[in-house]
Structure formats: structure tokens, C-alpha cells
Design brief:
mainly beta
Length: 592
């Protein structure tokens, strides 16, 4: 029996670029140029598995590689790195280059592991490897342009072409004509620069931006903020927003996937918006080198409403129809999650990636004693379900801590809730001498001020299936957990997610796979070896969705190694224990 965690081996690799894009999308360069064995240049940082990498990596391969574009997840282009001074296999004792920060103007220094090198994340108005280079601010566009960039504008009734040079902007009048179409929003006027064919906009008072889509004087949002078009670009934690059109975003809810983008206020900017009808404006960020998101530091307007008034919010769907947002955002009892990423449940096996906050709001982090850890699933306000083998030593209840809403391993914050344990209950068939059989346990949380879990966008239960529910072989379900990202990894991770296909009982019980070790109380998934669970993921969910509702179909239990070919993950079959679960927590069963 092997405790499990998520292993994400990608079937192909993808690209980066020779410049670095910091957490606020500021472009900086690396200290050294890294080439691949094919003579192509590595593109740093590159996105792989929803994380950003600033150096060559080894993901279940002994030969370091890098991406040939900035987005491996999207482009699947890789090259094997040529070892060079300052890049690979250096001593772990290299000095920390950030002890005395080399970054200017408040830039944040990040060391590149084992290299003695570093990157600088520059503030919005500066760029360059050390953040020495001052950008040019165009007040009409509400945008910083880097040295060498050009743009058009209409200033004092003149059409001008501007260039950012060291020390400031240089603008000169140019010939223009009338635009064939008008891309300017909010009744702005358009002119076409004859020499370049560039369309430039002149905005009415109260509007700004290259296409007059921004309202710089807006200080708060109304309702849920779906109509907010202000220029706040920081989150409640102070993180800078990524541009909605950033090359680092892939399969997220961004400018290339939201239709129509103009209606949702997205574009070539890094300001807070609410394109999916969430409870308030938000944006994508980089947190712990992973793509993440947060609510924004924008206050809500105080808008008194009389009892006779009724405010109806509308969401514009891709088909152009309007739907009452109260129906779209009403909270079902269980199984719903944030949809900040669009392709999590796509119908094929895909490599694992860092989850976004709120994607798996039923995840429970279970800390046992000083060193043991398992995952679990919230199924009701006071109850968690997890793997029994996590408790086969019968730990004291006082030694167990359950954290809900956690995103980074062992990190609590404003979105987390922590509970002590009142009791844990095994099924009567469970025996410690064979802990893979009937590998399920229920944990009852200890109430705080007369209640257990308070439901939030980041904490809500997963649905239990009906005992007669069957998802067919080949059905793509989702596993998630904080476990080690490969079999020999030494530490836990941010919350990871991956899709796995269910496997028929006949295949899993084949003597060449697991034979008689797999019983009728178990399910297998993930035979391809691309994705699996691994150490630290035990007890976490195998969640299968119908429509937008996720059901707990399995519990991560055991397997041989992590992601080994021909060795799928084995999960406790939850539907076989529905009657027992309902009898313990004393509630009526829920059907599909």
C-alpha cells in the first residue's frame, strides 16, 4: 500500500521566451542566455502546469529542459538545455544574490535556485533586468510604454505618433484620414494614421484608454461589479493584476475565451473586472510562482434601494442571450465551484496543473500529529470523509487539525477555516491489518460558537452520489491534492488538480495490473501514466461531474508508485458506503 499524491507528467512540453515576465507582467531579462541542444533559446519564465519557471527544470526526467515559448501548457514546445556556467548542477551553497537586493526602484529580487542568478520583478513604471529603465506613461491611454515602443494618440485635436525613449516620450504630428470603422467605445471618435494604418481614438470626458473603454474616475463598483470599468489593478493582498491578454494565461477565463470580451470590459489592460458574474471584481495574479486569482481592492458603492425597487443583474452569454444572474449565481446545496478556468473538466486525459483558488472548495487539509498529512472532502457542515488508512494508528483526536479553504500547503489566511476534531468513525468492516480494504473514515468537526463550517466561495461541500450511481469506464473525472508532484519529491505543493479516466473493473483486476488486490469496493483510474495521485494525496476526492455539479465518486486510497505505466490509482468506491455515511451523519440521501 502506497499513500498517494498528484503526479503530473506531461505528454509534451511547451514554450517560453528569452525575456522574463514578472508577477505584474513586467518584462525583464535573465542574467544568462540559455540554449537548447537544438540551438534554440529558452524562453523564461515559461508556464508549465499552471506554474512559472525561471530556469530549466526536470519533471520526471533526468535531463533538464525548458520551453521554447512563454507558455508550455498551450504550445507544447520544449528543448533540452545545454549545461552552462550559472545554470545547472551548481552547488547548493551558492550565495544568495538577493541578500543585498540588486533591483532598483523597489523591484523585488527572486533568486534562481542553484545558479547564483536572480530575476527582478519591477514596479509598473520600470523595466530592464535591474528595473533601472523608466517607462513612459501615456495619460490618455492610462498605460505605461516601454523604451522603444510606439503608439498613436489624438492630443489637442492633433493626431500624433509617439515613441518612448530614454527620458520620456517624443511625439510628432502625422497625416491621418477617417477610419473605415469605429473601434472606439463610448462614442469616441476614430482617426487612421496614414503611414502606419493604426487606428487611434479620441475619448469623451470621463473615459480613457486606447479604445475609450476605461473610466478612470470610477472609485467604486455597484452590484457585483460586472459593469466596473475603473483602473484599480491591485488585489486585497496588494498583488498586481496580470493583463487579461497576458501570454501566461491559458485555459483561464480571459480575453480570448470570453465572448464578447468588450461587453465584459476585458482587453489589453491589467485592471480589475468581473466577467463571470462573481460576487465582486477580481483579476488573475501570480502567487508562489503559480497562476492564481484574487478579489480586488475596490470598494463597493453605497447604493440605497427602496423596498419597492428590484435590481436585476444580467449576464451576457456567448450566444448573446440575457439570463437572470440570480439564477446563474444562486448557490446549490453542494458540488459547485469557481469557474476561473474553463478547461478543467475537458473530455480527455490531461497533465496536472496548479489549481486556482476556489476550484475545489470541498478540499480539506488534515494534519495528524507533527508529520502526518492527508486530504479529505467536506460533505456537510460538520463532516469530512477521507481514507481510513490515514488513521490506522488511531491518533488522539487532540492531535488532529482540519483546515478548509487552504490553497498553499500548511498556509492559513483570510479564506481558511480551522477546526479541531470531535470524533472519527470507521466502518465496522475496517481492520488495521489490511488498511486498503474499506478505506474510508468519517471525521466529525468540533463546533465553534455552536456551528461548524461557514459556507463561502472557497469552502462548500461536494455532493454525495446516489448509491446506484455509476459513471462508465472512460469517463473523465478530477483528482486534487497537495501531495508531492513526483514520486521522489521531498515537499508538498500548492493545491494541484488533474483529470483521470475511469478504468473498467476487468482491466484493473487483470493479473498484469493489480489482480485480486482490487475488490468490488474499489475503483481504478488513470492507467495511461500521464496523471496519478502520490504521497500526501491520500483521502482526497475523485470527483466526477454531471453538468456543473461535482460528486464524490472515489477516495484516493493506494497504488504502486506514482504515475507508473500500467499501474493506475486505486480509489475507495464511495457509492458502496452511501447508506453507512447517511446513517452516521443522519441525513437523507441525495440523488443525481
Amino acid at each position: 500500500m502506497t499513500n498517494h499524491m498528484l503526479l503530473f507528467v506531461l505528454s509534451a512540453f511547451s514554450g517560453g521566451a528569452r525575456t522574463l515576465v514578472s508577477g505584474d507582467d513586467t518584462v525583464v531579462s535573465t542574467e544568462e542566455r540559455v540554449l537548447t541542444t537544438s540551438g534554440k533559446e529558452c524562453k523564461f519564465p515559461f508556464r508549465q502546469g499552471g506554474r512559472l519557471h525561471h530556469h530549466c527544470i526536470t519533471v520526471l526526467t533526468s535531463q533538464p529542459w525548458c520551453s521554447l515559448t512563454h507558455n508550455y501548457d498551450r504550445d507544447k514546445q520544449l528543448g533540452y538545455c545545454i549545461p552552462s556556467d550559472g545554470f545547472i548542477n551548481r552547488s547548493h551553497d551558492v550565495p544568495d544574490p538577493c541578500l543585498v537586493t540588486p533591483c532598483w526602484h523597489g523591484g523585488i529580487c527572486t533568486p534562481i535556485p542553484h545558479t547564483g542568478s536572480f530575476t527582478c520583478s519591477c514596479p509598473e513604471g520600470f523595466s530592464g533586468r535591474l528595473c533601472k529603465q523608466k517607462k513612459c506613461y501615456e495619460p490618455l491611454h492610462l498605460h505605461y510604454y516601454d523604451v522603444g515602443e510606439t503608439w498613436g494618440r489624438i492630443h489637442l485635436r492633433n493626431v500624433e505618433q509617439c515613441t518612448c525613449v530614454a527620458g520620456g516620450s517624443e511625439c510628432q504630428r502625422v497625416r491621418y484620414t477617417t477610419c473605415r470603422r469605429n473601434p472606439c467605445q463610448n462614442l469616441g471618435t476614430c482617426r487612421l494614421i496614414t503611414a502606419t494604418g493604426q487606428e487611434v481614438c479620441h475619448c469623451r470626458n470621463g473615459y480613457g484608454g486606447p479604445r475609450c473603454s476605461l473610466q478612470p474616475e470610477t472609485e467604486c463598483y455597484t452590484g457585483r461589479g460586472t459593469g466596473y470599468r475603473g483602473v484599480v489593478g491591485t488585489t486585497v493582498s496588494g498583488a498586481r493584476c496580470l493583463p487579461w491578454s497576458s501570454d501566461l494565461l491559458f485555459d483561464e477565463l480571459h480575453v480570448r475565451t470570453v465572448v464578447p470580451s468588450a461587453v465584459n470590459g476585458l482587453g489589453e489592460h491589467a485592471f480589475c473586472r468581473n466577467p463571470d458574474g462573481d460576487k465582486r471584481p477580481w483579476c488573475y495574479t501570480v502567487s508562489d510562482s503559480a497562476i492564481s486569482w484574487e478579489y480586488c481592492d475596490v470598494p463597493s458603492c453605497v447604493m440605497p434601494v427602496s423596498s419597492s425597487q428590484r435590481i436585476i443583474l444580467f449576464n451576457v452569454l456567448p450566444n448573446g442571450k440575457k439570463t437572470n444572474a440570480s439564477k446563474l449565481t444562486s448557490n446549490p446545496v453542494c458540488g459547485t465551484k469557481h469557474k476561473k478556468r474553463l478547461a478543467v473538466a475537458r473530455g480527455r486525459i490531461f497533465g496536472g496543473t496548479s489549481a486556482l483558488p476556489g476550484t475545489h472548495p470541498w478540499m480539506a487539509a488534515i494534519y495528524i500529529g507533527q508529520s502526518d498529512f492527508c486530504a479529505g472532502s467536506l460533505i456537510s457542515s460538520c463532516w469530512i470523509v477521507t481514507a481510513a488508512h490515514c488513521f490506522f494508528r488511531n491518533p488522539l483526536k487532540s492531535q488532529i487539525r482540519v483546515v478548509l479553504g487552504q490553497h498553499h500547503f500548511n498556509v492559513t489566511g483570510p479564506n481558511t477555516q480551522t477546526f479541531a476534531v470531535e470524533n472519527y468513525i470507521f466502518p465496522k468492516q475496517f481492520i488495521v491489518f489490511n488498511p486498503t480494504l474499506h478505506d474510508i473514515v468519517l471525521i466529525k468537526l468540533k463546533k465553534q460558537d455552536g456551528r461548524c463550517v461557514r459556507k463561502t466561495p472557497f469552502i462548500r461541500p461536494i455532493c454525495l452520489p446516489d448509491k446506484n450511481t455509476t459513471f462508465p469506464p472512460g469517463y473523465c473525472c478530477t483528482i486534487s491534492g497537495w501531495g508531492r508532484v513526483h514520486e521522489k519529491a521531498s515537499s508538498y505543493s500548492t493545491l494541484q488538480e488533474a483529470g483521470v479516466r475511469l478504468i473498467s473493473d476487468d482491466i484493473c483486476r487483470d493479473p498484469r495490473v493489480y489482480g485480486h488486490h482490487v475488490t468490488t469496493d474499489m475503483i481504478c483510474a488513470g492507467l495511461s501514466g500521464c496523471v496519478d495521485a502520490c504521497q500526501g494525496d491520500s483521502g482526497g476526492p475523485l470527483a466526477c461531474a454531471t453538468g456543473d455539479v461535482s460528486f464524490l465518486y472515489g477516495i484516493i486510497s493506494w497504488g504502486e508508485g506514482c504515475g507508473r505505466p500500467g499501474r493506475p490509482g486505486v480509489y475507495t468506491k464511495v457509492v458502496n458506503y452511501i447508506d453507512w455515511i447517511n446513517s452516521v451523519i443522519k441525513r437523507k440521501p441525495r440523488t443525481l
